Protein backbone atom coordinates (compact mmCIF):
# COMPACT_ATOMS: atom_id res chain seq x y z
CA UNK A 1 0.00 0.00 0.00
CA UNK A 2 1.09 3.52 -0.68
CA UNK A 3 2.84 4.71 2.47
CA UNK A 4 1.46 8.22 1.95
CA UNK A 5 -1.97 6.72 2.50
CA UNK A 6 -1.35 6.04 6.19
CA UNK A 7 -2.56 8.57 8.70
CA UNK A 8 0.40 9.92 10.63
CA UNK A 9 -0.07 8.93 14.27
CA UNK A 10 -1.24 11.75 16.51
CA UNK A 11 -1.74 14.24 13.69
CA UNK A 12 -5.48 14.25 14.06
CA UNK A 13 -7.80 17.16 14.70
CA UNK A 14 -5.08 18.44 16.97
CA UNK A 15 -6.19 18.20 20.56
CA UNK A 16 -5.14 21.74 21.31
CA UNK A 17 -2.10 21.24 19.09
CA UNK A 18 -0.76 24.12 17.03
CA UNK A 19 -1.88 24.59 13.50
CA UNK A 20 -1.35 27.15 10.91
CA UNK A 21 -4.04 29.65 9.93
CA UNK A 22 -1.77 30.66 7.06
CA UNK A 23 -3.17 29.21 3.84
CA UNK A 24 0.29 28.00 2.82
CA UNK A 25 0.06 25.32 5.44
CA UNK A 26 1.75 22.61 3.45
CA UNK A 27 4.17 25.01 1.85
CA UNK A 28 4.97 22.77 -1.08
CA UNK A 29 6.20 24.51 -4.14
CA UNK A 30 3.59 23.67 -6.69
CA UNK A 31 3.78 25.96 -9.64
CA UNK A 32 0.83 28.16 -10.41
CA UNK A 33 -0.20 26.78 -13.78
CA UNK A 34 -1.77 29.18 -16.16
CA UNK A 35 -3.59 27.11 -18.73
CA UNK A 36 -3.89 29.92 -21.17
CA UNK A 37 -6.41 29.55 -23.90
CA UNK A 38 -7.78 26.25 -22.62
CA UNK A 39 -11.18 27.64 -21.94
CA UNK A 40 -13.11 28.70 -24.94
CA UNK A 41 -16.32 29.96 -23.44
CA UNK A 42 -16.33 33.52 -24.72
CA UNK A 43 -18.35 34.33 -27.76
CA UNK A 44 -17.23 36.63 -30.55
CA UNK A 45 -19.70 39.19 -29.30
CA UNK A 46 -17.95 39.30 -26.00
CA UNK A 47 -14.50 39.58 -27.51
CA UNK A 48 -15.78 42.43 -29.62
CA UNK A 49 -17.38 44.12 -26.61
CA UNK A 50 -14.20 43.76 -24.64
CA UNK A 51 -12.04 45.15 -27.43
CA UNK A 52 -14.43 48.01 -27.96
CA UNK A 53 -14.41 48.72 -24.28
CA UNK A 54 -10.63 48.68 -24.09
CA UNK A 55 -10.38 51.05 -27.01
CA UNK A 56 -12.88 53.38 -25.39
CA UNK A 57 -10.97 53.29 -22.13
CA UNK A 58 -7.71 53.96 -23.92
CA UNK A 59 -9.19 56.92 -25.75
CA UNK A 60 -10.76 58.26 -22.57
CA UNK A 61 -7.41 58.21 -20.82
CA UNK A 62 -5.40 59.42 -23.79
CA UNK A 63 -7.41 62.26 -25.33
CA UNK A 64 -6.00 63.09 -28.71
CA UNK A 65 -4.36 59.70 -28.88
CA UNK A 66 -6.31 58.76 -31.98
CA UNK A 67 -5.45 61.96 -33.85
CA UNK A 68 -1.81 61.96 -32.98
CA UNK A 69 -1.45 58.47 -34.40
CA UNK A 70 1.36 59.53 -36.71
CA UNK A 71 3.32 61.35 -34.13
CA UNK A 72 5.77 58.61 -33.24
CA UNK A 73 7.87 60.86 -31.01
CA UNK A 74 4.93 61.84 -28.88
CA UNK A 75 3.88 58.20 -28.63
CA UNK A 76 7.30 57.07 -27.50
CA UNK A 77 7.60 59.80 -24.90
CA UNK A 78 4.13 58.98 -23.67
CA UNK A 79 4.75 55.27 -23.39
CA UNK A 80 8.10 55.80 -21.71
CA UNK A 81 6.39 58.02 -19.16
CA UNK A 82 3.76 55.35 -18.59
CA UNK A 83 6.44 52.66 -18.33
CA UNK A 84 8.64 54.44 -15.84
CA UNK A 85 5.53 55.48 -13.89
CA UNK A 86 4.39 51.89 -13.80
CA UNK A 87 7.75 50.72 -12.52
CA UNK A 88 7.60 53.26 -9.69
CA UNK A 89 4.22 52.33 -8.33
CA UNK A 90 4.76 48.62 -8.78
CA UNK A 91 8.04 48.73 -6.93
CA UNK A 92 6.30 50.34 -3.98
CA UNK A 93 3.55 47.76 -3.61
CA UNK A 94 3.35 45.93 -0.30
CA UNK A 95 2.67 42.43 -1.55
CA UNK A 96 1.58 39.62 0.79
CA UNK A 97 3.54 36.35 0.82
CA UNK A 98 2.76 34.25 -2.26
CA UNK A 99 0.27 31.42 -1.86
CA UNK A 100 2.22 28.48 -3.23
CA UNK A 101 -0.46 25.85 -2.82
CA UNK A 102 -1.61 23.85 -5.80
CA UNK A 103 -4.53 25.37 -7.75
CA UNK A 104 -6.88 23.52 -10.08
CA UNK A 105 -8.08 24.52 -13.51
CA UNK A 106 -11.22 25.95 -11.92
CA UNK A 107 -9.14 29.09 -11.42
CA UNK A 108 -6.11 28.62 -13.66
CA UNK A 109 -7.88 28.01 -16.99
CA UNK A 110 -7.94 31.66 -17.94
CA UNK A 111 -7.61 33.50 -21.22
CA UNK A 112 -4.43 35.08 -19.94
CA UNK A 113 -5.77 38.58 -19.20
CA UNK A 114 -3.98 40.89 -16.80
CA UNK A 115 -5.74 43.30 -14.45
CA UNK A 116 -3.98 46.12 -16.28
CA UNK A 117 -5.82 45.15 -19.48
CA UNK A 118 -8.97 46.73 -17.99
CA UNK A 119 -7.48 50.22 -17.64
CA UNK A 120 -8.48 50.47 -14.01
CA UNK A 121 -7.51 53.41 -11.82
CA UNK A 122 -3.97 52.95 -10.62
CA UNK A 123 -5.07 53.18 -6.95
CA UNK A 124 -7.46 50.30 -7.57
CA UNK A 125 -4.77 48.22 -9.27
CA UNK A 126 -2.57 48.81 -6.25
CA UNK A 127 -5.28 47.46 -3.94
CA UNK A 128 -5.77 44.42 -6.19
CA UNK A 129 -2.08 43.53 -6.26
CA UNK A 130 -1.61 44.22 -2.57
CA UNK A 131 -4.42 41.75 -1.88
CA UNK A 132 -2.23 39.14 -3.53
CA UNK A 133 -4.21 38.85 -6.78
CA UNK A 134 -1.78 38.44 -9.65
CA UNK A 135 -4.15 37.77 -12.51
CA UNK A 136 -7.92 37.74 -12.93
CA UNK A 137 -9.65 34.41 -12.45
CA UNK A 138 -11.97 33.09 -15.21
CA UNK A 139 -15.11 34.70 -13.76
CA UNK A 140 -13.24 37.97 -13.28
CA UNK A 141 -12.04 37.92 -16.88
CA UNK A 142 -15.60 37.49 -18.07
CA UNK A 143 -17.35 39.89 -15.70
CA UNK A 144 -15.04 42.87 -15.13
CA UNK A 145 -14.92 44.30 -18.67
CA UNK A 146 -18.64 43.76 -19.22
CA UNK A 147 -19.62 45.28 -15.87
CA UNK A 148 -17.45 48.31 -16.65
CA UNK A 149 -19.56 48.98 -19.75
CA UNK A 150 -22.66 49.32 -17.55
CA UNK A 151 -24.44 46.16 -18.74
CA UNK A 152 -26.62 44.02 -16.51
CA UNK A 153 -25.00 40.67 -15.75
CA UNK A 154 -26.17 37.29 -14.54
CA UNK A 155 -23.02 35.32 -13.74
CA UNK A 156 -22.70 31.76 -12.61
CA UNK A 157 -19.34 30.42 -11.50
CA UNK A 158 -18.12 27.77 -9.10
CA UNK A 159 -17.58 28.31 -5.39
CA UNK A 160 -14.42 30.09 -4.38
CA UNK A 161 -13.44 31.17 -7.89
CA UNK A 162 -13.46 34.90 -7.14
CA UNK A 163 -16.98 36.17 -7.77
CA UNK A 164 -16.65 38.80 -5.04
CA UNK A 165 -13.82 40.65 -6.76
CA UNK A 166 -15.61 40.10 -10.09
CA UNK A 167 -18.23 42.62 -8.93
CA UNK A 168 -16.25 44.65 -6.35
CA UNK A 169 -13.56 45.69 -8.85
CA UNK A 170 -15.97 47.21 -11.42
CA UNK A 171 -18.04 48.70 -8.57
CA UNK A 172 -14.98 50.47 -7.15
CA UNK A 173 -13.87 51.57 -10.61
CA UNK A 174 -17.22 53.10 -11.50
CA UNK A 175 -17.65 55.09 -8.29
CA UNK A 176 -16.97 58.80 -8.63
CA UNK A 177 -15.27 59.62 -5.35
CA UNK A 178 -16.03 63.33 -5.72
CA UNK A 179 -19.78 62.72 -5.52
CA UNK A 180 -20.83 62.16 -1.93
CA UNK A 181 -23.80 59.93 -2.65
CA UNK A 182 -24.45 56.19 -2.48
CA UNK A 183 -23.52 54.91 -5.93
CA UNK A 184 -23.36 51.15 -5.36
CA UNK A 185 -25.35 48.79 -3.14
CA UNK A 186 -24.15 45.21 -2.62
CA UNK A 187 -26.81 42.89 -1.19
CA UNK A 188 -25.94 39.59 0.47
CA UNK A 189 -28.11 37.12 2.41
CA UNK A 190 -26.25 36.95 5.75
CA UNK A 191 -24.67 39.42 8.15
CA UNK A 192 -21.34 37.60 8.27
CA UNK A 193 -21.13 37.63 4.49
CA UNK A 194 -21.90 41.37 4.53
CA UNK A 195 -18.99 41.95 6.93
CA UNK A 196 -16.67 39.80 4.81
CA UNK A 197 -17.69 41.51 1.55
CA UNK A 198 -17.34 45.03 2.94
CA UNK A 199 -13.88 44.04 4.14
CA UNK A 200 -12.96 42.91 0.60
CA UNK A 201 -14.21 46.26 -0.78
CA UNK A 202 -12.16 48.15 1.79
CA UNK A 203 -9.03 46.13 1.04
CA UNK A 204 -9.32 46.38 -2.75
CA UNK A 205 -10.17 50.07 -2.47
CA UNK A 206 -7.70 50.96 0.23
CA UNK A 207 -5.79 53.43 -1.98
CA UNK A 208 -9.00 55.02 -3.25
CA UNK A 209 -10.97 57.66 -1.40
CA UNK A 210 -14.13 55.59 -1.40
CA UNK A 211 -16.26 55.34 1.72
CA UNK A 212 -17.60 51.83 2.30
CA UNK A 213 -20.35 51.23 4.85
CA UNK A 214 -21.74 47.91 6.05
CA UNK A 215 -25.22 47.68 7.50
CA UNK A 216 -27.08 44.59 8.71
CA UNK A 217 -29.77 43.57 11.13
CA UNK A 218 -28.67 42.86 14.68
CA UNK A 219 -26.80 46.16 15.00
CA UNK A 220 -27.89 49.56 16.25
CA UNK A 221 -30.11 51.36 13.76
CA UNK A 222 -29.20 54.65 15.43
CA UNK A 223 -25.48 54.09 14.73
CA UNK A 224 -26.30 53.44 11.07
CA UNK A 225 -28.38 56.62 10.88
CA UNK A 226 -25.50 58.64 12.36
CA UNK A 227 -23.06 57.03 9.94
CA UNK A 228 -25.25 57.90 6.98
CA UNK A 229 -24.87 61.61 7.79
CA UNK A 230 -21.25 61.13 6.69
CA UNK A 231 -20.36 60.42 3.07
CA UNK A 232 -21.01 56.84 1.87
CA UNK A 233 -20.23 55.75 -1.70
CA UNK A 234 -20.66 52.01 -1.42
CA UNK A 235 -23.16 50.31 0.85
CA UNK A 236 -22.95 46.59 1.64
CA UNK A 237 -25.67 44.89 3.62
CA UNK A 238 -28.53 42.53 4.13
CA UNK A 239 -31.82 43.41 2.40
CA UNK A 240 -34.01 43.93 5.50
CA UNK A 241 -31.84 46.62 7.07
CA UNK A 242 -31.14 48.50 3.85
CA UNK A 243 -34.85 48.50 3.00
CA UNK A 244 -35.61 49.78 6.49
CA UNK A 245 -33.17 52.67 6.05
CA UNK A 246 -34.49 53.43 2.56
CA UNK A 247 -38.13 53.46 3.71
CA UNK A 248 -37.26 55.85 6.54
CA UNK A 249 -35.71 58.18 3.97
CA UNK A 250 -32.34 57.96 5.74
CA UNK A 251 -30.58 56.06 3.02
CA UNK A 252 -30.96 57.87 -0.28
CA UNK A 253 -30.69 55.49 -3.23
CA UNK A 254 -31.82 57.78 -6.05
CA UNK A 255 -28.23 58.14 -7.31
CA UNK A 256 -27.36 54.50 -6.86
CA UNK A 257 -26.56 53.34 -10.38
CA UNK A 258 -25.39 49.84 -9.51
CA UNK A 259 -27.07 47.08 -7.52
CA UNK A 260 -25.15 43.86 -6.90
CA UNK A 261 -26.97 40.76 -5.71
CA UNK A 262 -24.46 38.22 -4.45
CA UNK A 263 -25.86 34.74 -3.81
CA UNK A 264 -28.65 36.04 -6.02
CA UNK A 265 -30.71 32.85 -5.99
CA UNK A 266 -30.82 32.96 -2.20
CA UNK A 267 -31.83 36.63 -2.31
CA UNK A 268 -34.71 35.62 -4.56
CA UNK A 269 -36.03 32.98 -2.15
CA UNK A 270 -39.46 33.80 -0.66
CA UNK A 271 -37.83 35.03 2.55
CA UNK A 272 -36.01 37.89 0.73
CA UNK A 273 -37.66 38.50 -2.63
CA UNK A 274 -40.37 40.97 -1.49
CA UNK A 275 -37.70 43.15 0.20
CA UNK A 276 -35.52 43.05 -2.90
CA UNK A 277 -38.35 44.13 -5.16
CA UNK A 278 -39.29 46.93 -2.79
CA UNK A 279 -35.65 48.04 -2.58
CA UNK A 280 -35.32 48.21 -6.36
CA UNK A 281 -38.21 50.70 -6.41
CA UNK A 282 -35.91 53.20 -4.61
CA UNK A 283 -33.25 52.98 -7.34
CA UNK A 284 -33.16 55.04 -10.54
CA UNK A 285 -34.66 53.33 -13.59
CA UNK A 286 -31.35 53.31 -15.47
CA UNK A 287 -29.60 51.31 -12.76
CA UNK A 288 -27.29 48.42 -13.53
CA UNK A 289 -27.98 45.07 -11.84
CA UNK A 290 -25.33 42.40 -11.38
CA UNK A 291 -26.40 38.96 -10.15
CA UNK A 292 -23.84 36.38 -9.02
CA UNK A 293 -24.06 32.86 -7.64
CA UNK A 294 -22.82 29.31 -8.11
CA UNK A 295 -26.42 28.11 -8.30
CA UNK A 296 -29.29 29.54 -10.34
CA UNK A 297 -32.53 27.57 -10.09
CA UNK A 298 -35.14 28.30 -12.80
CA UNK A 299 -37.02 30.64 -10.46
CA UNK A 300 -34.34 33.28 -11.08
CA UNK A 301 -35.43 33.60 -14.71
CA UNK A 302 -38.70 35.43 -13.90
CA UNK A 303 -36.81 38.03 -11.91
CA UNK A 304 -34.19 38.44 -14.60
CA UNK A 305 -36.85 38.91 -17.30
CA UNK A 306 -38.66 41.49 -15.17
CA UNK A 307 -35.81 43.60 -13.78
CA UNK A 308 -32.71 43.16 -15.94
CA UNK A 309 -32.21 44.71 -19.36
CA UNK A 310 -30.22 43.15 -22.20
CA UNK A 311 -28.64 40.89 -19.65
CA UNK A 312 -25.19 39.57 -20.33
CA UNK A 313 -25.24 35.95 -19.17
CA UNK A 314 -22.02 34.32 -18.00
CA UNK A 315 -22.06 30.63 -17.18
CA UNK A 316 -18.74 29.04 -16.32
CA UNK A 317 -20.26 25.91 -14.88
CA UNK A 318 -19.87 23.22 -17.48
CA UNK A 319 -19.76 20.97 -14.42
CA UNK A 320 -21.03 21.85 -10.95
CA UNK A 321 -18.59 20.55 -8.38
CA UNK A 322 -15.07 21.82 -7.83
CA UNK A 323 -12.20 19.82 -9.29
CA UNK A 324 -10.17 20.18 -6.10
CA UNK A 325 -12.69 18.67 -3.69
CA UNK A 326 -12.91 14.94 -3.03
CA UNK A 327 -16.24 13.83 -1.63
CA UNK A 328 -16.84 10.81 0.58
CA UNK A 329 -19.72 9.40 2.56
CA UNK A 330 -19.69 7.21 5.65
CA UNK A 331 -22.80 5.12 6.24
CA UNK A 332 -23.69 5.38 9.95
CA UNK A 333 -26.53 5.09 12.40
CA UNK A 334 -27.62 8.33 14.03
CA UNK A 335 -26.23 7.26 17.41
CA UNK A 336 -22.83 6.42 15.88
CA UNK A 337 -22.32 9.87 14.38
CA UNK A 338 -20.29 11.38 17.22
CA UNK A 339 -18.08 8.30 17.39
CA UNK A 340 -17.56 8.50 13.64
CA UNK A 341 -16.63 12.18 13.91
CA UNK A 342 -14.14 11.32 16.62
CA UNK A 343 -12.53 8.78 14.28
CA UNK A 344 -12.38 11.37 11.50
CA UNK A 345 -10.70 13.86 13.82
CA UNK A 346 -8.11 11.29 14.78
CA UNK A 347 -7.40 10.20 11.21
CA UNK A 348 -7.66 13.29 9.07
CA UNK A 349 -5.09 15.99 8.64
CA UNK A 350 -7.44 18.86 9.37
CA UNK A 351 -6.03 22.34 9.02
CA UNK A 352 -9.39 23.91 9.79
CA UNK A 353 -12.80 22.28 9.43
CA UNK A 354 -16.42 23.38 9.16
CA UNK A 355 -19.00 20.89 10.45
CA UNK A 356 -22.60 21.41 9.37
CA UNK A 357 -25.70 20.41 11.34
CA UNK A 358 -29.31 20.86 10.27
CA UNK A 359 -30.60 22.76 13.33
CA UNK A 360 -29.52 25.27 15.94
CA UNK A 361 -30.13 22.72 18.69
CA UNK A 362 -27.98 20.09 17.06
CA UNK A 363 -25.17 22.61 16.53
CA UNK A 364 -25.07 23.38 20.26
CA UNK A 365 -25.32 19.73 21.27
CA UNK A 366 -22.59 18.64 18.89
CA UNK A 367 -20.28 21.47 19.89
CA UNK A 368 -20.61 20.32 23.51
CA UNK A 369 -19.85 16.70 22.54
CA UNK A 370 -16.78 17.72 20.54
CA UNK A 371 -15.46 19.73 23.46
CA UNK A 372 -16.10 16.75 25.78
CA UNK A 373 -14.08 14.59 23.40
CA UNK A 374 -11.20 16.98 23.98
CA UNK A 375 -11.08 18.80 20.66
CA UNK A 376 -11.16 22.54 20.29
CA UNK A 377 -14.31 23.85 18.65
CA UNK A 378 -16.40 26.98 18.16
CA UNK A 379 -20.00 27.09 17.08
CA UNK A 380 -22.16 29.66 15.33
CA UNK A 381 -25.84 29.95 14.37
CA UNK A 382 -28.40 32.66 13.73
CA UNK A 383 -29.97 32.53 17.19
CA UNK A 384 -26.82 33.86 18.87
CA UNK A 385 -26.34 37.52 19.72
CA UNK A 386 -24.68 39.40 16.87
CA UNK A 387 -21.70 40.50 18.94
CA UNK A 388 -21.01 36.89 19.83
CA UNK A 389 -21.43 35.79 16.19
CA UNK A 390 -18.96 38.45 15.09
CA UNK A 391 -16.41 37.36 17.66
CA UNK A 392 -16.66 33.68 16.66
CA UNK A 393 -16.39 34.54 12.95
CA UNK A 394 -13.42 36.82 13.52
CA UNK A 395 -11.58 34.40 15.81
CA UNK A 396 -12.18 31.33 13.64
CA UNK A 397 -10.97 33.21 10.58
CA UNK A 398 -7.83 34.17 12.47
CA UNK A 399 -7.17 30.55 13.33
CA UNK A 400 -8.03 30.71 17.04
CA UNK A 401 -9.75 27.35 16.76
CA UNK A 402 -9.51 24.37 14.47
CA UNK A 403 -13.15 23.30 14.13
CA UNK A 404 -16.37 25.27 13.66
CA UNK A 405 -19.82 23.70 14.06
CA UNK A 406 -22.59 25.64 12.34
CA UNK A 407 -25.98 25.74 10.69
CA UNK A 408 -26.52 26.83 7.11
CA UNK A 409 -25.67 30.36 8.25
CA UNK A 410 -22.15 29.65 6.97
CA UNK A 411 -23.16 27.73 3.87
CA UNK A 412 -22.88 30.54 1.34
CA UNK A 413 -20.03 32.84 0.47
CA UNK A 414 -17.97 32.47 3.65
CA UNK A 415 -14.33 32.43 2.62
CA UNK A 416 -11.80 31.02 5.05
CA UNK A 417 -8.75 29.96 3.10
CA UNK A 418 -7.38 27.63 5.76
CA UNK A 419 -10.44 25.32 5.74
CA UNK A 420 -9.48 22.08 4.03
CA UNK A 421 -12.19 19.78 5.41
CA UNK A 422 -15.99 20.14 5.44
CA UNK A 423 -18.07 17.59 7.30
CA UNK A 424 -21.82 17.22 6.82
CA UNK A 425 -22.63 15.81 10.24
CA UNK A 426 -26.23 16.11 9.06
CA UNK A 427 -26.77 15.63 5.34
CA UNK A 428 -28.49 18.58 3.64
CA UNK A 429 -31.83 18.28 1.84
CA UNK A 430 -31.07 20.19 -1.35
CA UNK A 431 -28.35 19.95 -3.98
CA UNK A 432 -27.80 23.74 -3.81
CA UNK A 433 -27.16 23.63 -0.08
CA UNK A 434 -24.84 20.64 -0.53
CA UNK A 435 -22.83 22.38 -3.23
CA UNK A 436 -22.38 25.61 -1.27
CA UNK A 437 -21.51 23.74 1.94
CA UNK A 438 -18.76 21.63 0.40
CA UNK A 439 -17.51 24.74 -1.40
CA UNK A 440 -16.35 26.16 1.96
CA UNK A 441 -13.17 24.16 1.46
CA UNK A 442 -11.09 24.15 -1.69
CA UNK A 443 -11.17 27.95 -1.96
CA UNK A 444 -9.65 29.51 -5.06
CA UNK A 445 -8.99 26.17 -6.71
CA UNK A 446 -7.20 24.63 -3.75
CA UNK A 447 -7.66 21.07 -2.60
CA UNK A 448 -10.26 20.04 -0.05
CA UNK A 449 -12.18 17.16 1.40
CA UNK A 450 -15.92 16.76 2.06
CA UNK A 451 -17.14 13.95 4.30
CA UNK A 452 -20.85 13.19 4.60
CA UNK A 453 -22.32 11.15 7.45
CA UNK A 454 -25.22 9.29 5.88
CA UNK A 455 -27.98 7.53 7.80
CA UNK A 456 -30.48 5.06 6.40
CA UNK A 457 -33.00 7.94 5.99
CA UNK A 458 -30.49 10.00 3.99
CA UNK A 459 -29.77 7.34 1.40
CA UNK A 460 -32.27 8.58 -1.21
CA UNK A 461 -31.17 12.18 -0.73
CA UNK A 462 -27.56 11.17 -1.26
CA UNK A 463 -28.46 9.46 -4.50
CA UNK A 464 -30.65 12.34 -5.69
CA UNK A 465 -28.03 15.00 -4.92
CA UNK A 466 -25.33 12.97 -6.67
CA UNK A 467 -27.59 12.78 -9.73
CA UNK A 468 -28.56 16.44 -9.66
CA UNK A 469 -24.96 17.56 -9.38
CA UNK A 470 -23.63 14.94 -11.77
CA UNK A 471 -20.95 14.05 -9.27
CA UNK A 472 -19.73 10.99 -7.43
CA UNK A 473 -19.65 10.78 -3.66
CA UNK A 474 -17.59 7.70 -2.87
CA UNK A 475 -17.66 5.50 0.18
CA UNK A 476 -14.94 6.60 2.56
CA UNK A 477 -11.89 4.33 2.38
CA UNK A 478 -10.06 3.16 5.51
CA UNK A 479 -7.16 5.45 4.63
CA UNK A 480 -7.29 8.78 2.84
CA UNK A 481 -4.25 9.97 0.98
CA UNK A 482 -3.26 13.39 2.35
CA UNK A 483 -2.14 14.42 -1.10
CA UNK A 484 -5.79 14.79 -2.17
CA UNK A 485 -6.66 17.52 0.34
CA UNK A 486 -3.51 18.87 1.97
CA UNK A 487 -1.29 20.49 -0.61
N1 LIG B 1 -7.59 36.89 -8.97
C1 LIG B 1 -7.37 36.29 -7.81
N2 LIG B 1 -6.13 35.84 -7.50
C2 LIG B 1 -5.92 35.22 -6.31
N3 LIG B 1 -6.88 35.00 -5.38
C3 LIG B 1 -8.11 35.42 -5.65
C4 LIG B 1 -8.42 36.08 -6.87
N4 LIG B 1 -9.74 36.37 -6.86
C5 LIG B 1 -10.22 35.92 -5.69
N5 LIG B 1 -9.26 35.34 -4.95
C6 LIG B 1 -9.42 34.72 -3.63
O1 LIG B 1 -10.22 33.57 -3.80
C7 LIG B 1 -10.99 33.34 -2.64
C8 LIG B 1 -12.43 33.05 -3.04
O2 LIG B 1 -13.00 34.20 -3.61
P1 LIG B 1 -14.57 34.54 -3.43
O3 LIG B 1 -14.96 34.48 -1.99
O4 LIG B 1 -14.82 35.79 -4.15
O5 LIG B 1 -15.22 33.31 -4.19
P2 LIG B 1 -16.73 33.14 -4.67
O6 LIG B 1 -16.69 32.79 -6.09
O7 LIG B 1 -17.53 34.33 -4.27
O8 LIG B 1 -17.16 31.86 -3.83
P3 LIG B 1 -18.60 31.45 -3.22
O9 LIG B 1 -19.41 30.90 -4.34
O10 LIG B 1 -18.29 30.42 -2.21
O11 LIG B 1 -19.20 32.69 -2.65
C9 LIG B 1 -10.83 34.57 -1.76
O12 LIG B 1 -9.98 34.25 -0.70
C10 LIG B 1 -10.20 35.59 -2.67
O13 LIG B 1 -9.37 36.48 -1.97
MG1 LIG C 1 -19.08 34.60 -3.01
UniProtKB/TrEMBL annotation:
Its main location: cytoplasm. It catalyses: ATP + H2O = ADP + phosphate + H(+). Residues 1-97 are annotated as: Disordered. Signal peptide: none annotated. InterPro entries: DEAD/DEAH_box_helicase_dom (IPR011545), Helicase_ATP-bd (IPR014001), Helicase_C-like (IPR001650), P-loop_NTPase (IPR027417), RNA-helicase_DEAD-box_CS (IPR000629), RNA_helicase_DEAD_Q_motif (IPR014014). Residues 18-57 have a biased composition (Low complexity). Keywords: ATP-binding, Cytoplasm, Helicase, Hydrolase, Nucleotide-binding, RNA-binding. It is found in: Cytoplasm, P-body. Its EC number is 3.6.4.13. One of its GO terms (cellular component) is P-body. Residues 78-89 have a biased composition (Polar residues). It holds the Pfam family DEAD. One of its GO terms (molecular function) is ATP binding. Belongs to the DEAD box helicase family. DDX6/DHH1 subfamily. ATP-dependent RNA helicase involved in mRNA turnover, and more specifically in mRNA decapping. This is RNA helicase. It comes from Daucus carota subsp. sativus (Carrot).
Amino acid sequence: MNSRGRFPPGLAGGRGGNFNPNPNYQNRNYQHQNHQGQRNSNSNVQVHQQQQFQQQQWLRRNPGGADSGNDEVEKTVQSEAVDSGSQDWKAQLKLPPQDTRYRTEDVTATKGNEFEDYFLKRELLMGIYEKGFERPSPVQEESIPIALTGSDILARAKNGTGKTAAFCIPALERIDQDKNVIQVVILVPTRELALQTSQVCKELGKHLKIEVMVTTGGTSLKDDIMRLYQPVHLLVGTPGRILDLAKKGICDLKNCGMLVMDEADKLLSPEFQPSIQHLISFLPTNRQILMFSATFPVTVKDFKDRYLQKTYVINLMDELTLKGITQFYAFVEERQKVHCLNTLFSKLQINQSIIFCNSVNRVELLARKITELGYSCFYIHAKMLQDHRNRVFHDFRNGACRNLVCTDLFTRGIDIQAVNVVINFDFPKSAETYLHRVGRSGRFGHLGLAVNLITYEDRFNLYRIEQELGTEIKQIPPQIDQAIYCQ
